[in-house]
Amino acid sequence: MAAALLEEVPGATAVRRRRGGTRYRRLLGFAVPLVMLGLWQVAASTGLFPPRLLPAPSTVGEQLWSFFFGRTGTLTLQGVVPFTGAGPEHLLASLRRCGVSWVLAVCVGTVVGLALGLSSIARDLLDPVLNALRAVPLFAWLPLALVWFGIGEGSARAIIFVGALWPVLVAVGDSTARVPRVHVETARMLGTPRRWLWRRVYLPSALPEVVTGLRLSLTLAWTCVIVGELSGTTLGVGAMMNSARESGRTDQIVVGILVFAVVGLLADLVLRAVTRPWVRWAGA
Amino acid sequence: MSAGSLTAAGLVKAFGDLRVLDGVDLQARPGEVLAVLGPSGCGKSTLLRVLAGFETATAGTVSLDGTALTGPSSERGMVAQAGGLFPWLTLRDNLAFGPRAHGRGETQVRAVVDDLLKATGLEGFADALPKQLSGGMRQRAAIAQVLANRPPVLLLDEPFGALDAQTRLRMHEWLRALLAERPTTTLLVTHDVEEALLLGDRLALLSNRPARVVEELAVPFGADRGRQVLADPDFVKLKSEVLERVLAA
Q1: CB B193 within 8 A of CB B40
Q2: Hey, is the C-beta of B76 within 8 angstroms of any chain A C-beta?
Q3: ipTM of this model?
């Protein structure tokens, strides 16, 4: 009887129907890149674009292979950015940089966001400053970061941190401020001490929006990696691309773009999979 | 464990210049259902929020068995109009929320929850989320969530207002049976005369805003009244009389 009653809930059947449709739809997402790849190969092999501007996909493929699997001649001279066989090292450096800064941004963003969401005094004190700071373009922080943290790692991490901070902070602040009063009152009435409300009510209620903020923040952090790595690091996908630009290797630049795209996509997929159980209640 | 005699004496509540409660005197005796009836917008919900401790009274006192009360506590379980179920928790976790907040052990929590699932007829839905339940199920669950703490006083703010007429009638019968099993002093706020007469042992009529109690009367039907009482000529007559008084209040 329980199952029969659940069947009557309008949402339940609608969800099932939609899922059935997407099974084949999902394949459409792969069609567009394939068509683009085909057009790109045609354009390159007919000489429509000079290889210096747009190398053929086959060339890029070779470079991509050699970036990750080529016989290594890495880390030759101090300050020289290696390419062949240095892919894993560059990627790891970028990932670590991004990961450290993102986790830090999530922690700081959550704490400050909770303060903004839960305390009107904090909101009155900090909101104008934070909104002004948020409006500063990321590139505008770069010169200051270079002065403060010097060329290299510190500046890169600072830039990524700043880029990743705002989405978390805003998502946590806005969503906790909007938690329905009835939930807070019910929790209090049922005996939840005031100091535990953030854990029992505010955070879970805000979680769907927070997860959206986390995803946005991770994407932005990954985007900021290249900005950070322009500050003169010798390891990192962005550093490799910068060096490729200096030596006119468009094919290697495109390799970098591909790596950024694929890793960014994978990171988002992983984060979505991890956070899905937290937000199931809010889904369709 | 307190007996559950809830007393409001000279309650005044004003929001700025707007006076909502104008010296409300009420007493809900241990174990009875006191239905507070009043015209729409007269301040019924405000009265309940003050009694629950969510709002502070501008003047007057609320006391439970002679002890003055301030702030919300689990001794007065309040069920709001839309229900207070947490949408992110399963039904089981919703019912367990109060006992867990009081630091009860999991074995004890489980026993309380299983008992309430049975009392609400929702055994098959323990792992469902609130959004997967129908409106009637949700309100039953919301009442059970509050009862899990065994409060001496239950405060109900038009708990069945959003339900259709048939479901509401079923809910009335269910609530009567439930309260017969677990005697709890209940203060039910409603604008629905039929609901007040079906559930209440006594009625308190409120005036228009600012609200005062204009009349109290005992409901002359037994505790075992069911839907058949709706056809009782005395019930029909009383219902229209009370309705007149509410409209004239």
Answers
A1: no
A2: yes
A3: 0.87
